[in-house]
Amino acid sequence: MSQEKNLLPALETDPVGKVFVRYLIPSLVGMLMMSINVVADGIFVGHRLGALALAGINIASPVFSVFFAMSLWLGIGGATLFSQANGAKNIKQAQRIFTHSLILIFVLTMLVAVTAYLLRVPLAYALGANGDTLPHAVEYMTVLLTYGFIITIQNAFSLFVRNDGNPNLSMISMVVSAVLNIILNYIFLYMLDMSVKGSALATVLATLVGALVLFVHFLRKDRTLSFAKPFFSLKLAVRTLTIGFPSFISEVGLSVFTIGYNVAMVRWAGTAGVAAFSVLNYAHSVMLMLFLGMGSAIQPLISYYRGAKLRQREVQTVRIAVATAFVSGIAVFLLGLASAGGIVSLFGDFSEEVRSLAINGIRLFFIGYMFMGVNFVMMTFFQASEQVKAAVWITLSREIILMVIFLLVLPHLLGTNGVWLSIPLSECVVAVSIFIYVQYLQRSKQTAV
């Protein structure tokens, strides 16, 4: 029980703020590095192959989101149960949950990948491709669909390593992947003069190396993480899928966001609008990962405290995380106002029309970050504490229901500004609804007492 001598006292006895920071920093760095895996593709492709190729891989990017969504769905669902078992000091059950989750992830990912691969051309059209962007989108998509299971395995394994008290190794894995992806993008696109296929291969190979780094965790003597005898439990599978479902919806929502904005921009601003959105979308992927990292930082803690029945530490952790997310959101919004032009220039030299659209879009879109971090933190809290309905409401509303409604209505009133403002308004409405819901829960508890 060396695990109890190392991990458990730190989570149960160290100051809550100190524990939160210990998980927050590696989570933020890790998520930032993960976003660089995508953004590096955009930077290299935009500079080397031009705006059409950049638009093509932006159209294909939901494929990456789907694999990421699969890993979060099963990974967070399994990791939540894993940490709850750890908190309850049921180590054998934790190991069974880990093994069961990896089997589910691999099998379901392969089923989705094979189906999407067979339908990749109509899928590219459905995602917004046209005659100009289709070749680039299909080429990039083909590589991701062939080797995308590597992405799901690395991300899910990283979640379990972090939940086993080793967030720093998860961070190192992401750093290695990001650095290697940049190096390989340069080699494949500039030295070997490859097309967008080279950028996709760089992402896959870098992710594979990052996954191998995570196996260092098995050298730790104080680890709980270990493979048990393979088995399948329908009850455990359902519970894993239920808990992780909000994360899956969140990532699916990202795909809906990309498709919705691409379609709206084609209608209201043409090809220039799609190119401008592709620039914003890469910047958004970085910011999104940072806020997702804040939510991810509390998941192991809330799950563990729930298993250990440490309610007060749960509440303190959430309060610290919400304050951190809100202050960070304001800082990011101010950054967007001050540096919109520099952000656009980072992705290449564009026509004045594309550049003007992108700069305006960044300044308007970044308003949403003041609310997005808080929404992610609260979604993760509800999810990790198995209040799944509330978590599903947050994820469905912010990037699917409300966003689609605003995309259909606002452009008729505000033109392209209405497109850019659809997500900020969605995030704001969801944040207000969370505040009202929490106040209702608190009043209900006081009445019950």
Report on this model:
One of its GO terms (cellular component) is plasma membrane. Belongs to the multi antimicrobial extrusion (MATE) (TC 2.A.66.1) family. MepA subfamily. The chain is mainly α. It has one domain. It has 15 helices and no strands. The longest helix is centred in the middle third of the chain and has 75 residues, at 234-308.
Search tags:
mainly alpha; MATE_MepA_subfamily; xenobiotic transmembrane transporter activity; 449 residues; antiporter activity
Secondary structural class: mainly alpha
Report the sheet-strand fraction.
under 5%
Total number of β-strand segments? 0
Listing every helix as H and every strand as E from the N terminus to the C terminus, the arrangement reads HHHHHHHHHHHHHHH
Instruction: Indicate how many domains the architecture comprises.
Output: 1
The rounded distance between the terminal residues' Cα atoms is: 40 Å
The helical percent reads over 70%
Low-confidence stretches: 1-8
Morphology call: globular
- Please count the helical segments: 15
Rg, nearest Å: 21 Å
Largest sheet: none
Question: What is the mean pLDDT?
Answer: 85
GO molecular function, one term: xenobiotic transmembrane transporter activity
Keywords: Antibiotic resistance, Cell membrane, Membrane, Transmembrane, Transmembrane helix, Transport
InterPro entries: MATE_fam, MATE_MepA-like, MATE_MepA_subfamily, MdtK-like
Subcellular location: Cell membrane
